[in-house]
Amino acid sequence: MYLDLAVDFAQEDVKGYAEIMVIVASADGALVKEELAIIEALMGRSMMHPEMRVDIRNMLESPPALDLVLAKLNPVVLKVALRDAILVAAVDGEYDSSELKVIKALAKAAGVRKNELSELFEWVKAGWEWHNESFQHLGLV
Question: Residue 1's pLDDT is what?
């Protein structure tokens, strides 16, 4: 994975960021391997301390309350978390209404307008399409 702003977050911000990923992944009541894999990748990309990763994994069955997590994060962290929350929600191939509810609450807390949110959803769609093209180039589909 590429490096981005998340690599410079303070460890408490990284924890809150990862908590949001857990909340999104568990929102629909069913954790799938793709969601777990992307959360692991995002924790790695943000350079999360290994002991903190264990704490985050333990939250998968009982995620924290969204409003408590949102209240402790600054707008930059919230915006990066919003972008990546959409990735987590999309990874299993569909957006569940409970995932969308979390994403909309996150967008509101981050001060992201509807048109900007729509652009993020389009960015994720284009990203998955770009990624899946690699399988065609490799003759795997």
Answer: 47
Q: Map out the domains of the chain with their CATH numbers.
A: 5-137 (1.10.3680.10)
Nearest in space to 24 (alpha carbons), one of 129, 105, 93, 79: 105
Distance CA 38, CA 93 (A): 13
Tokens linked to 72: 């402790």
Contacts of 37 (CB under 8 A, 6+ apart): 91
| Tens-digit pLDDT profile for residues 67-117 | 999 999 999 999 999 999 999 999 998 999 999 999 999 999 999 999 999
CB 47 within 8 A of CB 14: yes
Report the chain's terminal Cα–Cα distance, integer Å.
23
Distances (CA, A) of 119 to 24, 63, 93, 132: 19, 28, 18, 20
- 104 torsion bin: left (phi>0), alpha (psi -120 to 50), beta (else): alpha
The secondary structure of residue 132, as a DSSP letter, is: H
Q: What pLDDT was estimated at residue 49?
A: 92
